[in-house]
Amino acid sequence: MKSTLDQIEDIRKNGYSLDFSNVFNHAFENYKKIALYAGLILLVFSILAFFLGGGILVALYGVEHFNEQFFKNLQSEQTDSSILMIYTLVIAFVAAFLSPFTAGFLKMADCADKDEAFNVSTIFSYYTSRHFPNLFIATLSISLLGGLISVGFSLLGIMFVDTLITVVITLFTTLTIPLIIFGELNAIDAIKSSVMIVSKQPFVILLLVIVGGLASMVGFIGCCIGIVFTIPITYSVNYAIYRAIILNDEDENSIDAIGQSDL
């Protein structure tokens, strides 16, 4: 079985094929296995995050300050460069700290794909894993890059370009986390490899990400709370893209077994 780095080197030289329908069908079948469990976890932690965030704001500003004028002042302060920089740093560190949480959902998708048992602890398993430093560093680096670019264009008064660049960065680094937790790569190699891999098939991967994102938004129809049960499809799409490109031992063994006699 070739290592992940060997497979990545083959991809660098020869590219790879990626069939949209096969990947999305794989993602949807995987999503059906994790939707209820992952949705309940997201619902619980979304509620906890809402009350925790609200409590922090009330503690900092006092409940009496939450009025229309408060939000107008908050909006006007966003144009100040120091406020934008602080905001960028906070968002980057929060994203980095939550990256093992995202990795946990990908691990859940992997367990479901292999018909292995998973539970709540699966979501938090990477906080105590050897992968945590690489997950944190990789996500922090990506978030800071995107955030600083966004701040730069905002200060220059150039609209929408920062959003476009952020989308491009997100697309080309979309395989970073699975390359760390499944491919055993370090933060820098995972980022570089993700950019290289996506650059070989950017339009197919972009279409998969867009369709996955649109599918996750279906939860807004009828009852907005349903969004927490459709968001997991984005994790399944990410996982399915990775597995369609990078083989694991089970994939290799199943391919080698095709056409072989049992005798």
UniProtKB/TrEMBL annotation:
Record keywords: Membrane, Transmembrane, Transmembrane helix
Organism of this sequence: Flavobacterium circumlabens
Keyword Transmembrane: yes
Transmembrane segments: 34-63, 83-106, 135-158, 164-182, 203-229
Recorded superkingdom: Bacteria
Designated name of the protein: Beta-carotene 15,15'-monooxygenase
